Amino acid sequence: MYTISDGADSWTDISAGLPSDDGFPMVVHPSDPETAFVIPLSGDSTGRHFPGGRAVVQRTQDGGKSWQALGEGLPQEQVYTNVLRQSMSMDSLDPTGVYFATATGHLFASNSNGETWQQLSEYLPPIYSVRAVVRDWSVATVRLPELLARLFPGAQRRYELGEATLLGVIDALERLHPGMRDRVCDGRPEIIRHINISVYGEKAGFGTRLTRDSEVDIIPAASGG
Q1: Domains of the chain, earliest start first
Q2: pLDDT tens for the 225 residues of the chain, in order
Q3: Considering the entire predicted model, what is its pTM?
Q4: Which of 69, 106, 110, 142 has the smallest CB count inside 10 Å?
Q5: What count of other Cβ atoms lies within 10 Å of the Cβ of residue 193?
């Protein structure tokens, strides 16, 4: 496993501490690029399955310098199945939810950033893909600055959006107006320097949970000389 941080000039091996060099599924935290989850699998010679027959998810919180094995709540005996490439996902809540499914139809979830797990289903058909979507039927009022709205034909100054987090709000605005996300946040994602976002008048971040009737304002940062 390798990582890169200098624009493709060089790659760094971050496999040290993992039980295997093989494995398909990996996800990166939606707001912390130093945190990632991976499920190592045994190699082709023994069949692709959890090493030692124990279901374990590996987590790094320092960009791969170290790894922590997380298995509380996962089966620890005779787990000779695999997890396919697209069968792991994360949500945008705080703490972050992590999800994965096996080729034998078992679906697992953690609502504690991987610390503990629970089984959501078993003996489904083989699961080839998992995607986490946060839905909250409470509606947030989102107000855009005039300068931002004018950049996108048809954009309104005010939206009512049923999202649970600020990151969900930005994703919803991007679906409505492709390109708007890049005007508000960078690829990490973090709010860009000349934009502030507030909820009920208080400065907020992408992990901020929204409640029923939340009021969200996207505001250009004041500057002067």
Answers
A1: 1-133 (2.130.10.10), 140-220 (3.10.20.30)
A2: 888 876 667 888 999 999 988 887 999 998 888 999 999 998 776 778 999 999 999 999 999 999 999 999 999 999 999 999 999 999 988 788 999 999 999 999 999 999 999 999 988 999 999 998 876 556 789 999 999 999 999 999 999 888 878 888 888 999 999 999 999 988 788 888 888 999 988 888 877 878 778 899 999 876 544
A3: 0.61
A4: 69
A5: 9
